[in-house]
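## retry 2 of 3
previous attempt timed out at serialization; input unchanged, resubmitting
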Amino acid sequence: MAYDTSTSIPAFRGLNQYMEINGDPTYAAEEKNVETKAGVLQPVAACTLLTPQLDHPIETLMLLHRRWYTGADDKDILVAASNGKLYSMLPNASEWTELTLPLASFYSNKWSWVTYEKSFSTDNPPVDVLIISNEYDGMYMIRGDDMSVSHVQTPKVFGVIERHAERIWGGAIETDPDMLVYSAPFDFTDWAARAENPEDGAGDVLQPSWDGDSFTALRTFGDQLIAFKRTRVWRILGTNPGEYTMKEQYGGGAPYAKTIAVDTERILMLTDKGVAAYDGVAVAPFQQQFCQDIWKRMNKSRLDKASAILWNHKYYLAVPLDSSTINNAVIIYDTIENTWLLRDDLSVESFLGGEKDMWFTSSTTPGKIWKWAENSWDTGDCTASATRWVLPWMDLGAKNIVKGGFEIYFLAEVKDNPVTLSFSVQTEKKVKTKTYTVSPVINRGAKQKRLHFGGSGRRFRIIIESPASSPVWRLTSGLLVVTEIDPD
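## retry succeeded, writing output
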């Protein structure tokens, strides 16, 4: 009987922890701190710690894009909430500027926020504004032209807000946990009802769940408004009060509101068992098998710290793993390449996405923010942490055959400085490791490399690693593994 003694891995993708043996070898059974864009394996890019610092932790980081702004400054401006104060900064500035508040300080630094616009004069164009609200201080407005802060009178105090169908909606009301309140259209300062013309006025909807659960998040999803509680989800259809219909959805709710992120086809969120998705009909587990071992490692007593964002077609989810009390890992789902990857080289408290850049806060550097980076080959700077890529166990579909004399073929490249990579062949008996130093190529193309390993076993897997503080490297053409066989 003839056996195929070679295993071709044409590209590197992401994690797949569902198939323990003989799974698709383009996926890793285990990995950390690598990127696999377009099938190339390389270390993750190093993120940049920005210089400006506040004296206290930044608990909410916000972004106002000023479409109508005519000043010389950047149209994007960052706003941070820290120690009861608000601060602003242009993305590339060297320091924060404290904003003048209409009171001494705020009680809470945890704000829900949306961007909007308001006309203050018929003679001038609208002004872009940042609307912020929390369950203790109420709603405030930050003008994008002069960065002044003013209070907005509302009928209830909202813990969460959202912009939908040209109205501002508010929920997470401590005194009315089952109520959602909406403003008049096109005016978030108008909360008066219009009995004769309800479509021109404000109002509220009430959806009791009889269990004490409160609305924790609101998200616009196409032409719908989705209202989340910890254990339930409601869908609100219609664009004016005469059309509003509110219906509970199936599958449960979103226990960790900070992990909710809207994709074009679904809303992703974290549950105790991994990522779930709402598709417009129900909440259901979403590809949880790909990272099933990681989900088991989550510190469930600290998942209230978890945070996520959908940015540049990727879902970034920061979670605490093992015994960590802070988010010490980021799980990244690429919605285009349909791949999952794990970074454990940084700690993220919260994310903020802009058109070109993404920033994040970290408990390891309180009062500072970081700028996210990807594609280390282009940036020329990669993580200072070690990397690891582990293929699934393989037995070539023949458990009765002993495999040995392994040969691994690969193409490795570096840019400027040599890198020593480790390649290991692990069988059920032992692990054999060889190192290979990749040197920069001058005036010639990189060449395929072959490593030969002794040893034998009925099953095997390949492990690729790089040490901490390595320069940038990449494997561009997958792997080919050839074995000798010895049938029983």
